[in-house]
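Extended Data, panel c. Modelled sequence:
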Amino acid sequence: MPDLLANLNPQQLAAVTLPAEHALILAGAGSGKTRVLTTRLAWLISTGQVSAAAVLAVTFTNKAAKEMLVRISAMLPINTRGMWVGTFHGLCNRFLRTHHQDAALPQSFQILDSQDQLAAIKRLLRGLNVDDQKFPPRNVQYFINGEKEEGRRPDAVEIVDDYSAKMVEFYRAYDDQCQREGVVDFAELLLRSYELLQRNQPLREHYQARFRHILVDEFQDTNDLQYRWLRLLAGPQTTLFAVGDDDQSIYAFRGANVGNMAGFERDYARDNLIKLEQNYRSHAHILNTANHLIRQNSRRLGKDLWTDAGEGEPVRIYEALTDSEEAQWLLEEIRSLIAQGSGRSEIAILYRSNAQSRILEHALFSAAVPYRVYGGLRFFERAEIKHALAYLRLLENTDDDTAFLRVVNLPARGIGARTMEMLQDQARAHGISLYRAVPLVGGAASTKLAQFVALMERLRSQAQGLPLTESIDHVLELSGLVAFYKTEREGQDRIENLRELVNAAAAYLSENGVDRNVPASVGLAGAADGREAQRVSRADVADVEDAPVAPGVAEIALSPLAGFLAHASLESGERQAGEGTD
């Protein structure tokens, strides 16, 4: 125990060792909040106050969740693989997989990232003959996501004029389309989980009794529905431990409500507000400047960061008249630093929105200053990767029209717009997916569509029994994607990315303790080695006295392919809520 609590400052120690009471930890930037959250969790388990299965920890990024699990593994001799540690979307995905029947979803439902969701909306509007100048698809996307994040279904949306009436009509049609195709978007993951917990009392009571401690990171970034979801999971015996910083709340444009922190203090943590104010990242000049600036916000909960690392260099502020002048000033600063002996790898330029990068890159390029841009397209967002994943999604779910449309003519198969119009007309007329509607298309147009379906069936047949990595490699070759990119000017880079997809799948299997030789289409419960690492059963709540166990709480073990597809969607959609709002 002394090792676990070693090197914590007094405020950190107080937060980690709080009794089983609700608490709000107001953690300034660089004050060790992740360490406090992780150590708190490890301390609860190591002191026997709770089992690993009775803890829920929510983070805002997959990277943070993985880091937390790695730290816990280093602190405690336990297997962390089955623990409920993840993002809101990741945990809701896990919950809905377990209770897919109650949630009216197929077990292997697909997750639409922002790009796929927008494509689905465009397809919907075209089918409804909607003027996309009057109703831009992205505006419809923002409307739907906004309503979902407020917890409102179409019937609950207030209609104030003809425009809002049409938007509600699109929302309702979009919901029907997603349900028919067996897909969900990111906002749907949380909303459907919330709705299921709200209406299913036995299920709600089961999870309330199971999770004795709920820990939440970056609480200032929660939206209203996320807070309501947490409150549903918190039973009479549950302790809520929230860590956040109202001074770092910058995601209001994504729906984040910094007022949740004040609401949490009022609702739960009246007597336990701990401030982490010692900063381990910056020097005093930076902290004093930040403190002076943020004090102008009269609605903050209040704290002052300090450090014992010394004053450091004074902060300089330069206000340029134009973006070009700003870029030129930065360039001169960089040249000066390099002349003084600083390495280029030690110099960074931070900018607020992606749109600002163009003028900065132009200045650096023109001055022959080498640079590297971070934070561009994520791996799973790259076009060639999304094409490959679309083929895999069709193997898992032939009713996924978004995946069908992405690859039906890629590589080119001579399937034109007129043929697709005929196919979509048949699908709409019979209320079925595009894949199922192929036999209904007559004439010459049917031949190439039938050939594509035959290709997919051949892919499915030949991949049967293959491990996940071999299945992906097989699909890449037989689909024609590799051959297609060989003919492109920058095709070699794309082919290397496709090969990296196989490595990503191998890493996914390793991180989740799945035997690499298990067939891609076989659930983990049927694996030869009988591993149940991701399966949560009634035994997991055996240490919780009088815990009501709802029917069907055993967690579903997805096939390696279905699990990898969900992982890819969650990774690519981590920043989905803010897509296009720069």
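The chain has 24 helices and eight strands. This feature is highlighted in the accompanying rendering.
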